[in-house]
Amino acid sequence: MTVRIGVIGTGMIGQEHIRRLTHVITGTRVTAVFDIDTARAEEVAASVGARALPSGGEVVDAADVDAVVITSWGPTHAEHVLAAVAAGKPVFCEKPLATTAEDCLKIIEAETAHGTRLVQVGFMRRYDAGYREMKRVIESGAIGAPLIVHCAHRNASVPDSYTSEMACQDTAVHEIDVLRWLLDDEIRSVQVLRPRRTRNAREHLQDPQIMLFETAEGVRIDLEVFVNCRYGYDIQCETVGEEGLVRLPDPAAVSVRGAGRNSTAVLQDWQGRFENAFDTEFREWAASVAAGTEPTGPSSWDGYAATVITDALVTSLHSGETVRIDALATRPAFYGGAGR
Ligand code: NAD
Ligand code: ISE
């Protein structure tokens, strides 16, 4: 069976996912698209033999759309996700699920009323081979109970429009999701520290930031977010347990000897770093749609949790105080129950 997909939002990552669904994943085809930038939508649609429709609602309702992918700007996600849930169609929504906790709860309510899971959120790190192996090692008990996690999320540079809050909402949000999943634990408090600012950041931007988290089980996590580190895109994660530690591997790269040096290149962007993860994410999601089963990836509850935790980070960024998170104490039975 070919899964026919409608895509809402044909910007940067929308085009990436359309390429992926057309040329990489087998058994999927993009049949309809919408973007408020009509010219862009038409150009992208023409490139894959799809139709550009006049609204997101028409993409959701189209008879030749079995499932929906949302890759528009974050503040528009909730509206499109709710439309897909109302139509009873599976929907993959790029992060964030919604930009307010209130909108995430509306989605949870609508999906719960529908009775089966329809929504998957685009936290692709859960599909990265290194993180999957790290989870397998933790669950095997080989390093004992996890005690501390050290992380770094570094970008070479960011555009001038990037704000201090985005370090929490756009950047750290990936660690928040992957660490909740990796540790099978819930984040209970956060704090943001402001180290000396790099001279390479614009005046308005606090860069780097150090984010501290504590989980329900008492695991302590430190995360350095440094988005003007200059040297490349670098993701680090090391989990220290009672009996040993497990560290994320660096991406495979050849070593080059020349000009008196032995060197290894550092990747420059997240697209290259997580390309395989994105492919696996869509392969597994499309397989669940084709089989008519519930998605197994990040749920609306995970999208809600990420928004609640990033909101707490933003509060701490401004106050400097530790912020407790009580809203996530109990996970609804619909999403697996009992909290992590
Ligand atoms: P972008 O600005 O390149 O594209 C967004 C597109 O949405 C634009 O073409 C814009 O015209 C369109 N749009 C705006 N309002 C719309 C509406 N109401 N209906 C339909 N289309 C609308 O942005 P991007 O970098 O492609 O990011 C899109 C989303 O993907 C964001 O939520 C972002 O956080 C997420 N993202 C995820 C990752 C990841 O690593 N998983 C990486 C980058 C971006
Ligand atoms: C960007 O928005 C992403 O989602 C990338 O995955 C992330 O690594 C980057 O830091 C963000 O700015």
Account of the 3D structure:
The protein is α/β, with parallel strands linked by helices and 340 residues long. The protein has 2 domains: 3-123 and 276-298, Rossmann fold, CATH 3.40.50.720; 126-269 and 304-324, 2-Layer Sandwich (Dihydrodipicolinate Reductase, domain 2), CATH 3.30.360. The chain contains 10 helices and 15 strands. The strands form 3 sheets. Strands 12-11-7-10-9-8-15 form a 7-stranded mixed β-sheet, with helices on one face. Helix 1 (12-24) links the parallel strand 1 (3-8) and strand 2. Helix 4 packs parallel to helix 5 (101-114) and helix 7 (164-183) crosses helix 10 (300-319). Residues 8-14, 34-37, 40, 56, 71-74, 76, 94-95, 122, 124, 170, 270 line the site of nicotinamide-adenine-dinucleotide.
Per-chain topology:
Layout: E1 3-8, H1 12-24, E2 28-34, H2 38-48, E3 51-52, H3 56-61, E4 67-70, H4 77-86, E5 91-94, H5 101-114, E6 119-122, H6 129-140, E7 146-154, H7 164-183, E8 187-193, E9 209-215, E10 220-226, E11 234-241, E12 245-247, E13 255-258, E14 261-264, H8 270-273, H9 275-291, H10 300-319, E15 323-324
Parallel strand pairs: 1-2, 1-4, 2-3, 4-5, 5-6, 7-10
Antiparallel strand pairs: 7-11, 8-9, 8-15, 9-10, 11-12, 13-14
Helix pairs in contact: 4-5, 5-10, 6-7, 7-10
The structure holds nicotinamide-adenine-dinucleotide and (2R,3S,4s,5R,6S)-2,3,4,5,6-pentahydroxycyclohexanone.
